[in-house]
Write a structure and sequence with these properties.
CATH superfamily of the largest domain: Spore Coat Polysaccharide Biosynthesis Protein SpsA, Chain A
Distance between the termini: 32 Å
Structural class: alpha/beta
CATH topology of the largest domain: Spore Coat Polysaccharide Biosynthesis Protein SpsA, Chain A
Largest sheet: 8 strands, mixed
Shape: elongated
Low-confidence stretches: none
CATH class of the largest domain: Alpha Beta
Radius of gyration: 25 Å
Strand content: 15-25%
CATH architecture of the largest domain: Alpha-Beta Complex
């Protein structure tokens, strides 16, 4: 494996202070794996600036100037974490044998890369980094995350439980992944669809090394909803079945009302009627919203806009 070229893809968004701390750690791990004969000295760390708009890109260029094993690309504008990861993977795939994507905050165990490469040496084209436990999360975050994975599996989506975006992917798998042209990306659901032999490496997640996270609650819910609507159409089927059940119950209620009308005087029932109307109206609005979300995604997919645009590349032997 000593000739294996590895690219570590690291998306960056407004994290200049963070990567000053974590870049030396990434380099140290890179050199350790090189010295063990797991990878070639041609291996690189590729930072992807997701249109930060602060001094993150200047910091990346400073890190590149310090060590030739660091490279950087800058997106023309902020495109979101998933698109930034894809930009790095597509940039790296023609220059390496294998990639590892990891966040820049140092929370994912960098040492797990070694185990991923060992699994790659055994023939695995994709290796998923999976958290052993969620002790560092708040109760609400742990509960919602675990519930979300269970819901995805119930909806038929093939996702790895407690896996985020820390994974090894071979260039062979990336070439097949390139054929997936979705604009609405949910990578942790797409890579299992690529197939090939895969494995899981389990690790403990640490506290963030510096700075503050940029994944707000709204962004996390947005990513979660993208995961559901990108991987499954079962929500629409559920709406259809719900409508069918309500129609049957309404028909039964209609028959009951006619019988009661002729048998005895009908009760006033205005409160129950009002509650029923409000409930059904609310369900109709939710159903229309879910269907509208799918239609919106179809609208975006048909436009075939690029998922990202690279405005600048920076490396020691070819500075732009």
């Amino acid at each position: 494996m000593k000739d294996t070229v590895l690219y570590i893809v690291v998306p960056v968004y407004k994290d200049a202070d963070v990567i000053k701390v974590t870049c030396p750690l990434f380099l140290n791990q890179l050199f350790k794996m090189r010295d063990e004969g797991l990878i070639s000295d041609d291996s690189r760390i590729l930072f992807v600036d997701d249109g930060s708009g602060d001094d993150s890109w200047d910091t990346i260029k400073m890190l590149v100037d310090k060590d030739p094993h660091v490279k950087g690309i800058c997106l023309s504008r902020n495109r979101g974490h998933q698109n930034a990861v894809v930009a790095g993977l597509m940039e790296a795939k023609d220059h390496c044998d294998v990639t590892i994507t990891i966040d820049d905050d140092g929370q994912d165990d960098i040492g797990a890369m070694r185990e991923m490469l060992i699994e790659y040496g055994k023939g695995c084209e994709i290796v998923y980094g999976v958290r052993k436990k969620r002790d560092t999360d708040t109760f609400m975050k742990r509960f919602t995350a675990q519930t979300y994975y269970k819901i995805l599996n119930l909806l038929g989506a093939d996702v790895i439980y407690n896996h985020a975006d820390y994974r090894l992917v071979s260039s062979r798998a990336l070439k097949e992944f390139e054929n997936f042209h979705e604009v609405n990306l949910f990578l942790r659901g797409l890579f299992p669809m690529v197939g090939f032999k895969s494995a899981c490496v389990y690790y403990d997640r640490h506290e963030r090394m510096a700075g503050e996270g940029h994944y707000t609650i709204s962004k996390m819910f947005g990513l979660a909803f993208d995961g559901v609507t990108s991987l499954s159409v079962k929500p629409i089927k559920i709406i259809t079945w719900f409508g069918f059940v309500v129609a049957v119950l309404s028909f039964i209620l209609l028959i009951y009302s006619i019988i009661v009308h002729f048998v005895k005087s009908t009760p006033q029932g205005w409160a129950s009627t009002a509650c029923l109307i409000c409930f059904l109206s609310g369900m109709q609005m939710i159903s229309i919203g879910v269907i509208g979300e799918y239609i919106g995604k179809i609208y975006l997919e048909t436009k075939q806009r690029p998922r990202y645009i690279i405005s600048e590349r920076y490396e020691q032997d070819q500075k732009n």
